[in-house]
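Task: fold both queries, return tokens.
Query 1:
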Amino acid sequence: MSAGTGPAPAPSPIDYSPAAQEFRAEVRDWLAANAPDEMRGVQVPREPAPELAAALGRWADTLTGAGYMCVAWPREYGGRGLSGVEVAIMNEEFARADVPRLTRGMGEGLVGPAIIAHATEEQKARFLPPIISGEHDYCQGFSEPEAGSDLASLRTSGVVDGDHLVINGQKVWTSGFFKVNMIFTLVRTNPDAAKHRGISYVLVPITVDDEPNGIEFRPITRMTGLAHFSETFFTDTRAPLDNVIGGLDNGWRVAMTTLGSERGGRATTQHLAFMRQFWRLVEEVRKRGLIDDVRVREQLAWAYSQVEVLRYTGLQLVAELAAGRSGAGLGNGSTTKIRWSEYERRLAEIAMDLLGPDALVVGPDYELDHWQEELLVTRSHTIWGGTAEVQRNIVAERVLGLPKDPAPVGSAR
């Protein structure tokens, strides 16, 4: 075992079909022949340095050329049509090879599924290939200052002007704004319609002919000192009507496809990163001579068991997919979102406690180490992507069939 990595991922107790086993062998052989040494052991940071970013770009190009990008998309749209089981196998093999399994981010995981499900064939031909190639890089413009969990209350307007929409309004929590050239957003195109109607889902270019398109990003600096997301302001921003996915005023159902993709996520393989992080903490504890302290071991045992719960939850989903079921019995990703976000936040607190006084010291330019950054970053993980409270309501009402909470006195609900 190499320092800080722990044992190799445990084999999955799933009865894989011969075809799935052949696919595993294919991926493993390809990685053995093609994974570059410069990618071995690389953990992709939120904002990679220029040299690492260039290396990641080369690796992304290699994956794209070999057909390992946007793999869950149907073949007719440039993907490989991989099943959930095959995607899980692919992720496992990349983890086994210790190289990053890169994707096209929000374009691949959120925008692409919405386009495939709701766009016209002309729109699919126009918007899907640039996502696969990396030409189009997307950020998300959904939440607003007064429309977070209650997304349907959004007020950003889209007014038809000839063959364009003119967009005005404000969004917030726009992740990855600093590296994108497209934003997918929801705008209200019919203010007289019911709350969940009159909303349109539109793909908006950040610039047009190398000129600004009326979009201003105002970075929001987090406790870490970095500004990974921003406020976003639209001022007479223009997007062709042909960029509206699903038709005018029909954006809510398109958005539900995107949100379903966001929350269903990485349940089958997310435990791999958490297990690497766990062994990193074990190594830190060993260095400090604390590994035999009973109280320390109890906390480490708790963390390990939580990662195993996440692993077996993922295996349950894989088993359902292998049996031809949808996995909807797991709460459509809600239970997993609750589990991993609350676990990761608690693990950071445990790590800081175990590191003791060292955890209180930062570099001269507010340089945070791994665990300091984790403590601050994970405070938001139970909020974004649907708060833990909202996720519990989803599980209670949609999975367990419990009645809705009574409306507060005086509420218009």
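Query 1 returned. Query 2:
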Amino acid sequence: MRCSPFGLQHRYRYRRLRSVFLLLVLPLCGALLAACQRPPEVLPQQAYIWQRQWSPSVVNAMQASDQLVGGWRVLAAELTAQRQWKIAAPDWQALRTTTHAIVMVVRLDGQTDSLDAATQNRVADLLTRWRQQNIPVSGVEIDYDCPTSQLPAYAGFLTGLRQHLDRDTTLSITALPTWLNSPALNKLLAVADESVLQVHAVMNPRQGLFDAERAHAWLKAYAKQTTHPWRVALPSYSTRVSWDDNGRISAVESERPLLASGETSQELSASPTAVSAFLAQLDKDPSPGLIGVVWFRLPTEDDVRNWSPTTWQAVLARQPLSSSLTVEVLPNAQAGLHDLTLRNTGNADSALPPVVRIDAACNAADGINGYALEADAKGKYLRRTREGLLRAGYQRNIGWVRCQQPDIQLHVER
């Protein structure tokens, strides 16, 4: 059979087109496959520095976290409900030498009625003072838990404050989930250049400090309210909440001890595991307009109501978290007496175990530091009397036992 020239030409064109198609499509398929296998990009991260009086541990924490954050939001002053200004005393040298962006934060008490020109002038004066110290301030943030009914007045205050700032200075505000149903919210958010939504809140002590499902819902709703860039504030701290007999919150103790009058109190903390999982979801599927995460607050070695620096840095670096709790029996100076030490050898802060079982052969024991001795049909045990975290790399003495045999058995129940 004889092939015509037209048939040969047709086959040649077909083969050439197929080759061109494969040359174009195969690399594209490879790129798509690589993109699917590539881990999601990490959202930019900043952190609040919330100490009014800086200690060396604050500077050390800044330096240790330098590679994990891209900006600091630093408390400059706080206006109390009694119209008193409490001015922070940061380490100017530490702020001068940082390579990251700095936002100067002014905290206004939620009960203040000082949304006036005098407050605007005070904020502007603070900014001038910081820049006279050669601090590279890129923006000003107002942290004000404004009552929802006062959002229009707050928007007016911010409009006046914006006139005190130069064009290159970003005006930022913190935002509360309780504002989401207000018709005045979008006008408020239009005034600020950017905002930070706080998804950690003590709305009800029984709901805890952070709830991932509730936070996701807030993010979705908030993204529909603003056309400006925004960030989300995630918690690393714990707080002690007291409430009265009527169920009303009477005190919230976070940074500083308070004299609470409530008869009932509870320690609320943000679980590193829960927050880490929430963060992974944000990296994978960020809400529209979300440009980063701001951590509240920078952990230090002496901040007992915060994650350990080890855990915080592991979460920021997206490292797997693991806690390893063991109870060590250490001989005491008294014969037959042994101290019980709970130790966390993992990289994640861990909730204190509710029960530590004691060897039945021990004839005496007692608990301390949040543990009390009890007994049931199985024998003696130390029961946790208050919730809390044992920080990664830390230890806690939880009690003592008196036993005659050298091999003492303890069992941690979680």
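Both queries returned. Flag for query 2: Residues 141 and 172 are 4 Å apart (CA to CA).
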